[in-house]
Amino acid sequence: MGSSYKLDKDAFARRLKRLYDMWKEPDEKCEGGFKNMDSFAVLVGNTEDVVYCKSSALQIWLFGYELADCVMLFAENEVHFLASKKKIEFLSQIAAVKNEEGMPTFKFHPRDKSDEDKANFKTLINIMKGSKQGKTVGMFVKDKDMFNDSFIKGFKNSMKSEDFAILDVSTTLSYIMGPKDESELNTTRKACQVSCDLYNKYLKDQIMDIIDSEKKVRHSKLSESTEAAMSDKKYISGYDVNYLDMCYPPIIQSGGNYALKFSAESDKNTLHFGAIICSLGAKYRHYCSNITRTLLVNPSDEMKDLYEIVIDLQEEVLKHLVHGAKLSEVYEAGVKFIKEKKPQMLDKFTKNFGFAMGLEFRDSALIIGPKSTGYAKKNMIFNVNMGIQDISNPKGADKTDKTHAIFVGDTVVVNESGPATVYTNIKKKIKHIGIFIKEDDEDEEEESDKEDKTAEVQKELLGRGKRTTVLDNKLRLESSSEEKRKQHQKELAAALNENARQRLAEQGSGQQVEKVRKSTVSYKNASQMPQENEVKELKIYVDRKYETVLLPIFGLSVPFHISTIKNISQSVEGDYTYLRINFFHPGATVGRNEGGVYSQPDATFVKEMSYRSTNVKEQGEISAPSSNLSTAFRLIKEVQKKFKNREAEEREKEDLVKQDTLVISTNKGNPKLKDLYIRPNIVSKRITGVLEAHTNGFRYTSVRGDKVDILYNNIKHALFQPCDNEMIILLHFHLKHAIMFGKKKHIDVQFYTEVGEITTDLGKHQHMHDRDDLAGEQAERELRHKLKSAFKSFCDKVDALTKQEVDFDTPYRDLGFPGAPFRSTVLLQPTSGCLVNLTEWPPFVITLEDVELVHFERVQFHLKNFDMVFVFKDYRRRVVMVNAIPMNMLDHVKEWLNSCDIRYTEGIQSLNWTKIMKTIVDDSENFFESGGWSFLDPESGTEGEDESAEDEEDEVYKPSGEESVEESDSDSDYSEYSEDSDSGEEELGSSEESGKDWSDLEAEAAAADKEDDEDGFSTKKSHKPSGNSNSKHGSSKNHSSSSSKHKSPDKKKHSSSSRDHSPKKSHRDKHSPKKSSHDKSRDKKSGSSSLKRSNSSSHNSKDSKRSRK
């Protein structure tokens, strides 16, 4: 070890001074007899077989490196080093440390192998005798027998020949080295981040993959692969691998064999899909970390409850682990919590709740246990872990599933006040660690077997008539999922109206109070009126102070406040200038933001006033008389603009909820993101700034000093959208109450930064193998990865800081679908609680908890798109519509809504939602008594209606000819339009079947027309069939027949359903054209085709009823 290794002299001096200060003025609580020590010897031999020891830890703490075969002797005023020449050369760097008050001097003794260092040993023994009283020597007793090489043994033998009292100073050094400085805390954070990355990015994914594919993997194999993953940049990046190591081999336990301690080893049993305990700890620059998690596969309710108790127990322990707390009392607080929650399980909990850690993985002097005498100090690092073992599972299928365990652990730092801060804050709630496997295969197989048996029975009963069995088998899976969805929607529909009625009853009437326009008084008394010459001369005068215009009326100056003036105009006609002033008054149209309610609406109001003045300047006049009108026009405009701006600001502030004051955290390690843009912009030009998390909220500070504060308790949704397939990466906050900045209030605030180039230079020469382009793409990929890691780290730190009060949600891009909530089509992406689009501005955020139901409009399969309407539980809130969703996404959207337990309906028409919601709000009781939201459901018709529709279908076609004629004359249920069009189609079909030539058909058609003209000509002038309204001759069947030939079925259906009225059975128009005998005979011959068309017509009639309903 030579001069190439650098020693941090400042850290060395600072830490050595702390050691000597404790020696000279010890802390009574934790000195452990340190003041009775005369000297202090640290012996470190060959360290190859030693993993953790206090002696090596002290060397690393002071120098940053471990020095093998070295003796350090701390005397009263001197520190002596006995080591090889290379180590002495390295240690000589400390000679430059300033000899401040309280600091010892340094002496170096190179080893002399010629006499096996006997002379050096004798020198050190004499120094020990000369330090203070020379009787008591402090040592690490546990380390004394750890090094057995000849060099250390020789020094021990030299000490034995003297009568020294040995004092164990391990506990005292634990208190000296325990509180970490800022550099140590940063190193520990990095070690914790490595542990989290290794667990999150590798181990957890590996276990999920094993469970998903049902592989058989041994615990030991999984442990080895996890340790090997530490050197893979895919999982661990941004750290020097030379300083990375594992604190212990990763421990994977499952299948009933559990040991809730860190000395356990991963056995060779295969991974069991029950309770899986994973423990791992990374070490960075010798500083240790640890994380322990339990993954539960299909946990029972009892396991879920026990797991929640363990998580709550950890929170309780962290709450009591503060500066100055006695560790045994912290343990007792945890035991008290267990006795309150689950006293019968107390014996099965771990016997301690953690220990201090740092350069050593486990500091035995500082254990959170019942017999511990230690105290917690600020900035100490603890591994807080607790668990339950031997949890019986009576429902276990085999021996490995009969016993479960739960173990949870995290690395934390002690604070001055308040709960300890978690450094390994990976989410550990049941929804994050629970793995729920849906065992649908068995159910589907059972259903498949039942349906196969049913199909066989039908085949035997029906013989050759049942030929669709194969097709049914193919579509069974689709139909079963569709049926499940429909059944779930029926359940939601049943609960929807009842819940809505109950909610409205609890809310009460809740009528909005109308705002009355405040009567503005310009002057409280005459003395306040201006006394300028313009007023005395009866000129138009604008008083800016009181925002009033004084107008001369019948020889008096009458004041009008600026709020009473609607608008003002000036015009020049010939030699005169006209000034016209229009006032607000009852009955006049007003703008959206202008008050239309008056305190005294029955009073007499001035509507408008006009003034005229000449443009001709007389001799001796400075300016023409009309200049006063021009000046008044300009001043009124200025005062009006100022008044409107002030009123607009007041309107913005009307609904604002007063927010708490942001508590600024002085901690340097606050989560922070730099170079972020904010949307909406604070000023017209976008500027960058810094987003920092504080005690109770975020603060964004722009480069020019603007500040925007967002409190944690005002955040409704915190969303993090990565830069995958996007050109920006962003954090979005959807707030409960709007905040004010940039003179406007905002409910959505977003912070983002761009990834790569938003625009492309089309004039640039591009080649697919251009080195610059390839380098640019690589740089962009690296930037994306760097930004994603930074944002993710920020979110995790905020999650830890706020105790998951702010939980960042990420949109699921795979579940997204296109739609147009505003002007342009965007990708709408669901999250766990919202439907959002955050990339485009303005953003689109719908909270699913607030949605009552969703209605699909224009659902017709010959259309390419449909619309989606969100109706909210607050019926006074305006519905939100998303347009132009592709029709092929309909089932996808339905499936998503169904999974969110949201009721949906569909229809072919667009509805007037403003009118519908007003009707519901005005008379909600009557709305729900008449069926409530069932009017949107096309399948909500009563059984009676369905039966009558079936009867109508049956009546259309009957085998006997006379009955058919009589029924068609008297009881037809179809409109004249559908009747005429159907008859036209029947003519074509029957003509082709009868085999008549064209001359015969023309003669028959002419005879039929003549008969119709004679029967109904006089009435058709006044009553024309609605279906033939576009025809010149409404009575001609040839016209209706020809028009119906070229209509597609969809068009015919649409026109039928969109009509406002259709004649009913009992109200058929007596003047409608009757069928000729020739038509009746053709009805007999074309039975099968008539049946098909009548069924189609009946179907159209049903749709018509639904749309009218």
Question: What does this entry show, briefly?
Answer:
By secondary structure, the protein is of the alpha+beta class.
User: Looking at the structure, what is the overall shape?
Assistant: extended
Average predicted confidence as pLDDT: 79
Name the CATH homologous superfamily of the largest domain: Creatinase/methionine aminopeptidase superfamily
Number of strands: 40
Q: Name the poorly predicted regions.
A: 453-477, 941-994, 1016-1109
How many DSSP helices? 28
Q: What fold name goes in the CATH topology slot of the largest domain?
A: Creatine Amidinohydrolase
Distance between the termini: 92 Å
Biased composition (Basic and acidic residues): 1076-1086, 1100-1109
Domain Histone chaperone RTT106/FACT complex subunit SPT16-like middle: 817-907
Protein name: FACT complex subunit
Subunit structure: Component of the FACT complex.
Explain how this protein is built.
This protein has 1109 residues and is of the alpha+beta class. It has six domains: 9-177, Creatinase/prolidase N-terminal domain (Creatine Amidinohydrolase, Chain A, domain 1, 3-Layer(aba) Sandwich); 182-435, Creatinase/methionine aminopeptidase superfamily (Creatine Amidinohydrolase, Alpha-Beta Complex); 537-596 and 603-619 and 628-654, FACT complex subunit Spt16p/Cdc68p (PH-domain like, Roll), CATH 2.30.29; 672-758 and 775-810, PH-domain like (Roll), CATH 2.30.29.150; 814-936, PH-domain like (Roll), CATH 2.30.29.30; 955-1001 and 1050-1109, no CATH class. Helices cover 38% and strands 21% of the residues. It has 28 helices and 40 strands. An eight-stranded mixed beta sheet has the order 28-27-26-25-31-30-29-32. A six-stranded mixed beta sheet has the order 4-3-2-1-5-6. A hairpin with a 2-residue loop joins strand 20 (548-553) and strand 21. Helix 23 packs antiparallel against helix 28 (1087-1108). It is extended, with a radius of gyration of 44 Å. 29% of the residues are buried.
